Amino acid sequence: MDTESGPLPTPVVPVDWLRDALARSEGRPVVLDVRWTLRPPPRNAKERKAAAREDPPGLVEHEAGHIPGAVYVDLDTELAGPPGPAGRHPLPDPDVLEETLQRAGAVDDSEIVVYDGGDGMASSRAWWVLRWAGIRPDRVAVLDGGWPAWVAAGGEVSTVVGGVRRPGTLRVDAGAMPVLTASGAADVAAARDAVLLDGRAAERFRGETEPIDPVAGHVPGAENLPAATLIGDDGHWRAADDAASVLRPLVEEAGAVGAYCGSGVSAAMLVLGLEHAGLRTPADPAGLYVGSWSHWCGTGRPVETGPGTVAT
Q1: SS3 sequence, 181-249?
Q2: Which residues, in sequence order, are bridge partners of residue 281?
Q3: Three-state DSSP state, 13
Q4: CB neighbour list of residue 214: distance below 8 Å, 6 or more residues apart
Q5: 288 by DSSP, 3-state: which?
Q6: d(C-alpha 186, C-alpha 180), whole Å
Q7: Pairing between strand 287-288 and 256-260?
């Protein structure tokens, strides 16, 4: 099938759509492989040096097999800035991001499809970062089901690594998505006509366990919707109406919606999910607290534990 490039149908595209798009004679989408594994931050200088010598797990997986033409992008170093006081995955340097997208061959009107290992986290973060970078909402999407769905559908697998033949010219214009500060997140959580969604697992939200950050609990007034809830048992994103049935009870009365998680990765799934479900529009997306809990718990702000509203 040889279809012309045009607006992406939704922020979540199926394997068949991508396979047809890659078969075009021209105007094929840019494909980014953002497979990623969450690893606890190094505890000391020795662990930092060891981590610096290791290839990211996603790069190892990419070299073993990827969608033909896909370019690997590292979430930790290209879709986020260095970890520190601003959180474990702060906003990326726009210049670094621009160089990354140009390396992938992206130009101003490119369609860009991102895929991960299937849990939706890294691809959603990439989708959000690209939207924040000024890429039009109808030009960027995530691949439904990620790499496992591509392989299960019999998609071609390549082991050719080396980027694209011609660098792109896309320019990053950062700031196109709403970003919440800690104060902004607190205001959303406290407002009667707003809701702050915490995308972490319920036991982390309740403060029963905290495997990564130094303090357990959640932002006072936040409500819990584990981001993984938006992925069905088959590994695909829930259908739009199904996702809406999960999200609507929490957001339908809210004028403002914010989202956070541990470090601003899985919370991007909530921002995407709200658009996928038709409950927010590209012109009025939910705000993302990029620093998330990794920033909040280091600010000395109040911490709440115990149950909240948990959607399943």
Answers
A1: CHHHHHHHHHCCCEEEEECCCHHHHCCCCCCCCCCCCECCCCEECCHHHHECCCCCECCHHHHHHHHHH
A2: 284
A3: strand
A4: 297, 298
A5: strand
A6: 9
A7: parallel
Q: Which of 34, 112, 104 is nearest to 75 (CA)?
A: 34
Which one-letter amino acid corresponds to residue 97? Answer: L
Report the relative pairing of strands 112-115 and 140-143 from DSSP bridges.
parallel
CA 186, CA 197: separation in Å to the nearest integer? Answer: 11
| The model's pTM | 0.93
Q: How many whole angstroms separate alpha carbon 93 and alpha carbon 310?
A: 34
Return d(Cα 196, Cα 190) in angstroms, integer.
9
Query: 195 phi and psi, to 5 degrees?
Result: -145, 135
Which single residue is written with the structure tokens 């797990």? 57
Q: Per-10-residue mean pLDDT for the chain, 312 residues long? A: 61 96 93 90 62 78 97 97 95 98 95 97 98 97 98 97 84 98 98 97 96 95 97 96 96 94 98 97 97 96 80 42
Are 28 and 159 in contact, with CB atoms under 8 Å apart? Answer: no
Catalytic residue selected from 12, 182, 251, 261: 261
Which residue's structure tokens are 């932002």? 219
Reply yes or no on whether 297 is catalytic: no
Cβ(198)–Cβ(223) below 8 Å: yes
- Residue 285, CB-side half-sphere exposure with 13 Å CA sphere: 26
In the chain, which residue ranges form alpha helices assigned H by DSSP?
15-22, 45-53, 57-64, 75-78, 94-103, 121-132, 146-152, 182-190, 202-205, 240-251, 267-276, 292-296
Residue 121 near residue 89, CB atoms below 8 Å? no
